[in-house]
């Protein structure tokens, strides 16, 4: 496996783990365990930063000289898809957790 393939696999792995942590966080909301939900969401964000750093390295390589450029493959497109899907899922779940948490606090105050 060459360096480019390792980067692509790292992007897929980090993105997939980020998405999984975000959905685990949402599951914690069912039992009103917001502390665990926020912890898992932070883990998701940390993994997203890892994925972002990998993506940035790939983009920088693409912008380099012709000899440094990497062939765009279906696997690379798949990795990008994983990354973008994970970001959208995490952002949406973050907002959902905030909504549920506010609702539960309002209900407890009544």
Describe the protein.
This protein has three helices and no strands. The protein has 110 residues and is mostly helical. The radius of gyration is 18 Å and the shape is elongated.
In short:
By secondary structure, this protein is mainly α. The chain is built from three helices and no strands.
Return the string of H and E elements: HHH
Give the overall average pLDDT.
91
The main sheet comes to: none
**What is the overall number of helices?**
3
CATH class descriptor: Mainly Alpha
Beta percentage is under 5%
Q: Uncertain runs with pLDDT below 50, 5 residues or more?
A: none
CATH superfamily: Phosphotransferase system, lactose/cellobiose-type IIA subunit
Radius of gyration: 18 Å
From the spread of the alpha carbons, the general shape counts as elongated
How far the N terminus sits from the C terminus, by CA atoms, comes to 60 Å
Q: What is the β-strand count? A: 0
Q: Examine the secondary-structure arrangement and name the CATH architecture.
A: Up-down Bundle
Keywords: Phosphotransferase system, Sugar transport, Transferase, Transport
Organism: Companilactobacillus huachuanensis
Modified residues (Phosphohistidine): 78
Protein name: PTS lactose/cellobiose transporter subunit IIA
């Amino acid at each position: 496996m060459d360096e480019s393939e390792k980067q692509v696999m790292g992007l897929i792995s980090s993105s997939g783990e980020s998405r999984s942590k975000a959905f685990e966080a949402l599951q914690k909301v069912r039992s009103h365990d917001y502390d665990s939900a926020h912890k898992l969401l932070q883990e998701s964000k940390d993994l997203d930063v890892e994925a972002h750093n990998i993506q940035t390295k790939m983009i920088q390589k693409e912008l380099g000289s012709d000899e440094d450029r990497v062939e765009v493959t279906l696997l690379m497109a798949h990795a990008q898809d994983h990354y973008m899907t994970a970001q959208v899922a995490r952002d949406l779940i973050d907002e959902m957790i905030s909504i549920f948490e506010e609702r539960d606090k309002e209900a407890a105050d009544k």
